[in-house]
Specification:
Elements (H helix, E strand, L loop, with lengths): L2 H4 L34 E6 L11 E7 L5 H4 L2 E6 L19 E7 L11 E8 L5 E3 L1 E7 L21 E4 L10 E12 L10 E13 L44 E6 L6 E8 L5 E6 L1 E9 L5 E8 L1 E2 L4 E5 L5 H9 L7 E3 L8 E6 L4 H13 L9 E2 L1 E5 L16 E7 L3 E2 L5 E3 L4 E7 L11 E9 H8 L7 E7 L9 E7 L2 E10 L4 E7 L6 H6 L18 E7 L2 E7 L9 E2 L1
Parallel strand pairs: 1-19, 13-22
Antiparallel strand pairs: 1-17, 2-3, 2-4, 4-9, 5-6, 5-12, 7-8, 8-9, 9-10, 10-11, 10-21, 12-15, 13-21, 14-15, 16-20, 18-19, 22-26, 23-25, 24-25, 25-30, 26-29, 27-30, 28-29, 31-32, 31-33
């Protein structure tokens, strides 16, 4: 389970834009009011880079009670905050004997030397005219993290840092020339394990300006204890590193400054390079487009990861409704889901009097189902459409054949879209159609009434793809189709390319609300050893050209009763054979 699934947020101040910003604030500063209008109201809202907003470096050790499902029920004997001077945390090698589970969030700062790890190496941008610009680390802003901690390399625990900004004068935005980088690792050490598991990685880039003032530290309240109770008698939250921001628009804050977001330029490629002490395996997903990635092992054994992509516009949704006015499908859904439901406010049991807001913080099958049920009530229209550049790891391979990627010491694939909701795992392999199927969902209309057009990128490691399909190293052909919820194929722009060890599939221009993107990969059958003895037929693997421009053709060649199938871009019959 991801750490974020356990760290229930205390961020309860996501209010609608205050009057001083009214009518002029960009969508990046818009927030749906979280307070229900009254009893018997329940609501749903999507969030803009929710997990990266006001995130903080922090590390805790938790002792769960010896009862079934203690973690899910938040049955806790003790919580120790390891970053504080009065910390009661035990040394790493004593955690198991004390039955302690370790969990951390670590923000990554800029690399200070060539020996630094768990830090940001560089941020570069490439403008539409091809000009490449390197950002310069600015001392103007560093987030305040009073719960920061010192790591322990022997157990894969990184040392925490702070978020910071790059200055790019050649790339101005509406709020100036500063770009905030929020990069976060979160990891977990089980009681039975000697080390922390491979971490989850989250990355975000924000165009920002700053508001000066006096701001509260972004820490957990000191009265948060396992024996505590919430205002409605619910069990204490297990939450670290977050508190109410002084201003609702803050992405990150220091003691004296609040970083306010502005629209990102959409025609620019942002390339972020990171040096990590731990490996990144598996899959990535996020809100970007035109993505590329590179992963390498440095001479000191550290991992160098670089990802390049353009920002996208992602629609936001939000609505409150009386319980009695929900659709029958939503009423059934909330009646049957496990309790407590979770959310902001009184969200324990739908049969009680709800006064609750559910927020989109996960991207799984159940989350998609709930989103679609609400979308029908929202008349398929977004309430805001902010820009985003965010990427994160997936720590599970979904339904794909695990043997094809679990030992891959690299990134196996990257799934990117501008959809409001999507299944974050790798595309599902549909055995009946032999396709990779990927579900996305978003409002059909933007706030201004325009039809929202979707983008989708799939980067998959060439060898992983061949393993999944049982392909050889010969050329692979692929196609993308976009099917509406009714199964009707949509008109869209698609491309397929194999380059630098990646197969890149791209689709854009399709409409929502709930299409399925279907990727079909095929490969021409190879000649049998008997057939190839007479005259080997060789087909060169295209390394950089678009696969849609290298479609293979198959012809039949006949000599007496012998018939051969020859496949290639310009297939010819072997000597002694004639085309039939």
């Amino acid at each position: 389970m991801r750490v974020k699934a356990l760290l229930v947020t205390l961020l309860t101040s996501l209010l609608i834009t205050p009057p001083s910003f009214a009518n002029v604030a960009p969508d990046e500063q818009f927030y749906f009011k979280i307070n229900p209008p009254g009893p018997e109201y329940i609501g749903y809202a999507s969030s803009n880079s929710f997990e990266l907003r006001m995130s903080n470096s922090s590390y805790i050790q938790v002792k769960f009670k010896d009862v079934p499902n203690a973690e899910q029920l938040r049955e806790i004997d003790a919580i120790y905050e390891c970053g504080k001077p009065e910390s009661k945390c035990v040394p790493s090698d004593q955690m198991s004997q004390n039955k302690l589970t370790g969990m951390y969030n670590a923000l990554l700062g800029p690399c200070s030397s060539k020996d630094s790890v768990d830090c940001i190496t560089s941020l570069t941008v490439t403008k539409s005219d091809g000009t490449s610009i390197s950002g310069k680390v600015s001392n103007e802003f560093t987030s305040y993290n009073p719960q920061g901690f010192t790591g322990d390399p022997s157990v894969n625990l990184p040392t925490s840092g702070s978020s910071f900004v790059y200055d790019i004068p050649e790339l101005p935005h509406a709020g100036g020339t500063k770009y905030l980088v929020v990069a976060q690792l979160d990891g977990r050490k089980e009681v039975s394990k000697a080390k922390f598991a491979e971490p989850n990685l989250q990355l975000g880039i924000f165009a920002v300006s700053f508001i000066n003032g006096s701001f509260n530290p972004n820490t957990t309240p000191s009265d948060l204890t396992p024996a505590g109770r919430g205002p409605n008698g619910e069990p204490a939250f297990l939450a670290i590193g977050r508190n109410h921001p002084h201003l609702e628009q803050c992405i990150q804050q220091s003691r004296t400054q609040c970083a306010i977001p502005h629209p990102l330029p959409l025609d620019v490629n942002f390339s972020l390079s990171i040096k990590l002490s731990s490996q990144i395996n598996g899959w990535l997903h996020g809100r970007v487009s035109n993505t590329s990635a590179a992963l390498a092992t440095n001479s000191d054994g550290s991992t160098q990861f670089q990802v390049t992509a353009k920002p996208v516009v992602v629609p936001m949704v939000g609505l409150f409704s009386k319980k009695s006015e929900l659709t029958p499908e939503l009423t059934t859904y909330y009646t049957n889901i496990p309790k407590p439901m979770g959310g902001t406010g009184v969200c324990r049991d739908f049969t009680d009097t709800p006064q609750c807001l559910r927020q989109q913080t996960s991207f799984g099958t159940e989350g998609m189902k709930e989103f679609l049920l609400w979308l029908a009530m929202m008349k398929e229209k977004a309430i805001a459409a902010p820009t985003q550049w965010s990427i994160r790891t997936i720590n599970d391979g979904g339904d794909l054949d695990r043997a094809c990627y679990q030992n891959n010491k690299s990134v196996s694939g990257i799934v990117m879209t501008n959809a409001t909701n999507y299944i974050s795992g790798p595309p599902i392999f549909n055995t009946s159609t032999q396709t990779l199927d990927y579900k996305v969902a978003a409002p059909h209309f933007l706030p201004n009434g325009a039809v929202f057009k979707g983008t989708y990128d799939l980067l998959i490691d060439s060898q992983v793809a061949r393993c999944l399909y049982g392909f050889s190293n010969a050329p692979v052909q692929a196609s993308i189709s976009v099917l509406s919820a009714e199964g009707v194929e949509q008109v869209s722009t698609t491309s397929v390319e194999e380059k630098n060890g990646w197969i890149h599939l791209f689709a854009q221009g399709f409409t929502f609300s709930n299409p399925t993107l279907r990727v079909k990969m095929t490969q021409a059958p190879l000649l049998t050893p008997t057939e190839s003895k007479s005259e080997p037929i060789k087909v060169a693997t295209p390394k950089t050209k678009n696969l849609t421009k290298n479609l293979q053709k198959t012809i039949s060649c006949k000599r007496g009763k012998s018939i051969k199938k020859i496949t290639g871009q310009n297939p010819k019959c072997p000597s002694g054979y004639t085309k039939s």
